User: Which sequence fits this backbone?
């Protein structure tokens, strides 16, 4: 009896230790160079799996600096961490709408455009983006669209309208993003409205249309719809182009289309935080990341489009011609940036919760 | 409550409390800094207003709680309570025989079984949940095996349902039920069971009139340990439920991280905390007084 009690206690203690150990953050990336004191250090706060170590290494070599990378997984997490007092970061990568929010909160430093020669060759539609027309705070870095990934072996006619997501033939084989603004954005566009509407009646009508769609939807997923497409679990997925392009590698019959009603265009932007202790180095880092060749390598790896139009020269042809990565030029005019909807957020929120509880 | 509230003075060694009270200091400090203060912050935020860009405006308002009166939130809480309750019940039904079996084994083999029960904890819960997705999905392991065995002709829709969520909760929290049950059953004097047999008790009355009363603290502890985390679960409904539905945990996470509505999220957290607290009060009320006074055998 007492033997087993002792064993149980020991096991309990051991499991607690294991749990605590597992819960511990192993901390930031190990320092490649032992800080000599003279080396400047740049803290880069970016999306997980958004940066290749060899590019970072090249920058470190070229500028004699050290770059420490930390990651976040959503715009909201980025904002929450910075608002929660995380400091010491120099450069980070919010998406378009989050740039507006961070700028309004006074979190961003004004950019020194003279230090950003690579900014001169931005893609035309990114030269004066609505969220920051004069690049006062933000430099577009990677961009893309939200559309429909589909399996052309099953969905034989390419979808040209969002309404295909309401087609009963594909019942149970459709996935939507688990993101209220994107899901409402798609349905609002399909009804001919702006995805940034704040009109309660319009949002209500959109909600009804989504409730009608719900029996057909297999899952609302934002982070693994590429796997669902690749495994054949779904044949139609609302999604960002990059992951759909990744699914094409595993299942060659996967295609990507942006419906004729248009959809979201997004851009992740490089910004310097107001609290950055290293603004000059931060400008060099941004200029490095948007350099045509560097951006081309990033684009090929992540399968998102580069903001620098000269990067197109260096990108492999199959990537450049993949509409999931580089949408056709005529499409861009039909796309819409996601804006902040202010107080209407609670209306969207309530509608989204009601959809989920159907 | 029908018994006197517990106090330090009623402990068997009720000698000088003043001398030992200094020992409480680290614990008190810990509780204040890491538990009470954060809860106070959450409570304060729940009474504030959402700023236009999602910050917190310190304007006092009860609107967040008033918003929660909407039947929609009642349904979310109701569904969560139902799922958590079902998970707790299933864990109890599955866990009791297992715990009983282990507790009746020779000590050496008990240790082996306990290690087996704890092994899943060595892997991250998220990874294990993903493993379930691979098992349950349309072209997954389970469907493939069933089709190969000609037990079914078309794949079953297993993933992305409330049943899958329930499975995930039971799978995840079963050890929390088995361990306290084991500790309680193992403590029972076998002579009592033999006495019950000698007095012509059948299996059912042995179970109902001897085992259950003697293991009640373990049953209650196990239920609380399973019910509380099930109620707040959000990974399982998201991944195994396909986010087609919401539990309270998903709603709170959504309010904090997606809608950036910290005041509403905080109000939800406070309500959830009140529910959890009342289930803990039930736990303490259900503890028989002698269980606390009895020393280790």
Assistant:
């Amino acid at each position: 009896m007492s033997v087993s009690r002792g064993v149980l206690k020991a096991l309990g203690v051991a499991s607690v230790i294991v749990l605590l150990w597992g819960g511990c953050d192993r901390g930031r990336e190990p320092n490649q160079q032992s800080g000599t004191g003279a080396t400047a250090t740049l803290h880069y706060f970016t999306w997980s799996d958004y940066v290749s170590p060899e590019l970072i290494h090249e920058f470190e070599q070229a500028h004699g600096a050290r770059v420490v990378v930390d990651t976040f997984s959503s715009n909201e997490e980025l904002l929450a961490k910075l608002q929660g007092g995380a400091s010491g970061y120099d450069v980070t990568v919010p998406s378009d709408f989050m740039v507006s929010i961070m700028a309004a909160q006074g979190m961003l430093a004004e950019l020194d455009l003279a230090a950003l020669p690579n900014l001169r060759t931005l893609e035309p539609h990114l030269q004066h983006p609505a969220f920051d027309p004069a690049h006062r705070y933000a430099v577009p870095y990677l961009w893309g669209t939200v559309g429909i990934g589909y399996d052309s072996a099953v969905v034989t006619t390419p979808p040209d309208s969002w309404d295909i997501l309401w087609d009963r033939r594909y019942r149970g084989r459709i996935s939507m993003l688990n993101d209220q603004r994107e899901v409402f954005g798609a349905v609002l566009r399909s009804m001919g409205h702006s995805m940034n509407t704040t009109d309660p009646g319009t949002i209500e009508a959109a909600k009804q249309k989504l409730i009608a769609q719900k029996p057909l939807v297999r899952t609302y997923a934002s982070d693994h719809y590429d796997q669902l497409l690749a495994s054949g679990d779904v044949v139609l997925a609302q999604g960002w182009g990059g992951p759909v392009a990744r699914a094409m590698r595993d299942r060659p019959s996967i295609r990507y289309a942006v419906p004729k009603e248009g959809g979201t265009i997004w851009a992740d932007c490089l910004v310097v935080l107001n609290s950055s202790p290293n603004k000059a180095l931060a400008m060099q880092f941004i200029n490095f990341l948007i350099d045509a060749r560097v951006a081309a390598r990033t684009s090929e790896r992540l399968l998102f489009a580069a903001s620098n139009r000269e990067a197109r020269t260096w990108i492999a042809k199959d990537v450049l011609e993949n509409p999931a990565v580089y949408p056709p030029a005529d499409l861009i005019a039909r796309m819409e940036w996601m804006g902040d909807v202010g107080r209407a957020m609670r209306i969207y929120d309530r509608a989204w919760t009601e959809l989920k509880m159907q | 409550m029908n018994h006197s509230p517990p106090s330090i003075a009623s402990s068997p060694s009720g000698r000088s409390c003043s001398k030992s009270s200094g020992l409480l200091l680290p614990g008190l400090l810990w509780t204040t800094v890491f538990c009470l203060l954060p809860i106070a912050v959450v409570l304060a935020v729940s009474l504030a207003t959402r700023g236009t860009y999602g910050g917190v405006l310190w304007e006092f308002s009860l609107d967040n709680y008033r918003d929660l009166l909407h039947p929609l939130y009642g349904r979310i809480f109701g569904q969560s309570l139902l799922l958590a309750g079902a998970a707790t019940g299933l864990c109890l039904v599955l866990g009791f025989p297992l715990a009983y079996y282990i507790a009746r084994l020779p000590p050496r083999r008990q240790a082996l079984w306990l290690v087996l029960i704890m092994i899943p904890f060595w892997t991250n819960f998220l990874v294990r949940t993903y493993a379930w997705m691979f098992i349950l999905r349309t072209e997954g392991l389970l469907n493939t095996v069933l089709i190969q065995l000609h037990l079914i002709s078309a794949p079953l829709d297993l993933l992305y349902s409330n049943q899958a969520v329930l499975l995930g909760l039971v799978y995840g929290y079963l050890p929390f039920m088995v361990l306290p049950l084991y500790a309680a059953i193992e403590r029972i004097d076998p002579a009592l069971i033999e006495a019950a047999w000698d007095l012509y008790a059948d299996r059912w009355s042995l179970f109902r009139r001897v085992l259950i009363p003697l293991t009640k603290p373990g049953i209650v502890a196990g239920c609380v340990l399973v019910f509380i985390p099930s109620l707040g679960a959000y990974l399982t409904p998201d991944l195994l439920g396909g986010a087609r539905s919401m539990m309270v945990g998903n709603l709170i996470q959504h309010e904090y991280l997606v809608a950036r509505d910290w005041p509403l999220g905080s109000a939800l957290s406070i309500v959830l905390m009140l529910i959890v607290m009342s289930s803990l009060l039930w736990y303490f009320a259900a503890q028989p007084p002698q269980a606390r006074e009895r020393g280790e055998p």
The domain at 40-143+267-328 of chain A is CATH 3.40.190.10 (D-Maltodextrin-Binding Protein; domain 2).
